[in-house]
Amino acid sequence: MNSVDAEVEEAEILEAEVVASRSAVRSGKMPILALLLALVALILAAAAALFSYQSRESLSADLTTLEISLQAARKETGDLGQQLSAAHSSYQAQGEQLKEQKRVLAEQQQALAAHNRSLDDQDAKLEQERARLDQAGQEIRESIQSVHRRIGGDNSHWMAAEAAYLIQIANYRLQLEWDVQTAIRALQTADARLRDSADPSWIPVREILALEIDSLKGVGSADIEGLALKLSALAAGVKNLRLRGTELAPVVPAAPVNANKPDTEERTLKTLLRDAWSGFRSIMVIRHHGQPVSALLPPDQQLLVQQNLRLQLEAARVSLLRGNQALFDASLQSAVQLLNEYFDTDDAKANGYLKEIDVLSKFNVRPQLPDISVSLIALREQLEKVGENR
Asked: What is the mean pLDDT of residues 213-241?
């Protein structure tokens, strides 16, 4: 029992010593472990602070870049808005201009229709006047025949009556139809009738006839019908004219550069730039017009411009036939303005139109005509004197 108790006490003492030694070891390691933990925590805190600082700096730089991009985007948006506003204003202006051109075209069409109606009315009046002249001529011929029957073999008086009729016809042709050549031939025939009569009493009348024939020859003859046909041909050929801005520049193949040089030439920066410049010149064509290039017109406006030019030429033709000098000149000036503004004047056809219109603009539609009624009055007075003497 005592030995057992002794062993138990000895074991308890050994266990107490081991426990005490372990407690002493643990109490010595505790400050070092705490210090290591504190150092690790400090390093982690410093790393966290450094990471937070770098993240904040990166975020600040990103925000600055984003703000600059946002300002650039706002500026581009503002510029785009201004461009859209300008384009809208230009579109509205073109729309107004198109409406105005359509209105002017409608007015010109109405004016041309009115001119055509007036010309038709004038043709009807001329036809009535021709019928009246034919009737008057028939009456004069009947009167001449009556005079011839009355005077019997007096050829002088009969020829004088025939000359009076021819002078009257000359006056009608000149005043109503502006036919100078027919009037000259009628006066010459009347003078020949008076000459063949061999009556000296008609000499004063023949002197007046000579003066009137010379005055008519000084007027000159104009081919009105030929000029009208030329204007009609010009109006019909408007569709073949080329509008400005619709032509394409011809592509000219460039000659090979350095074709004769050997392929073994060393490639340097200088040769590379030279080849690049040659290639650029081979695909770029620069044309000098000497005038600002206008925008390409839409197809409907191209048709409107061509129709407007055609109407101006038709109006000039109608004015020529009616003898309206002011409207004739105004129509040709409008045609020249349209050609210079919308058509390619470098083209041979448009240039030919300008030359033709320039020649036509110098034409006097209705020159001043002389008075040829003096001879008719003198002849009638002489016929009355001869009748009284008989």
From this structure: 80
Rg (CA), the chain: 55
Tell me: do 331 and 212 sit in the same domain.
no
- The angle that helices 374-389 and 203-219 make with each other, rounded to 10 degrees, is 170
Q: Which residues form the domain of 151?
A: 89-221+369-389
Pair 177, 235 in one domain: no
pLDDT band at 280 (very low <50, low <70, confident <90, very high): low
Q: What total of structural domains would you count in the chain?
A: 2
Per residue in 359-379, pLDDT (tens digit) is 888 877 776 777 888 888 888
Distances, alpha carbon 188 to alpha carbons 89, 193, 204, 301, 382, in Å? 70, 9, 15, 56, 19
User: CA-CA distance, 388 to 299, in Å (whole number)?
Assistant: 79
> 306 and 385, same structural domain?
no
d(CA 326, CA 322): 11
- Dump pLDDT digits (tens) for 136-167: 878 876 776 565 555 544 567 788 888 889 98
Check residue 25 and give its pLDDT: 45
What's the pTM?
Answer: 0.39
pLDDT band at 61 (very low <50, low <70, confident <90, very high): confident
**Same domain, residue pair 310 and 353:** yes
Are residues 208 and 378 in contact, defined by beta-carbon separation less than 8 angstroms?
yes
Tell me, yes or no, whether 329 and 378 share the same domain.
Answer: no
CA distance 376 to 209: 9
Name residues whose C-beta falls within 8 Å of residue 313's C-beta, 6 or more positions apart in sequence: 231, 232, 234, 235, 238, 331, 335
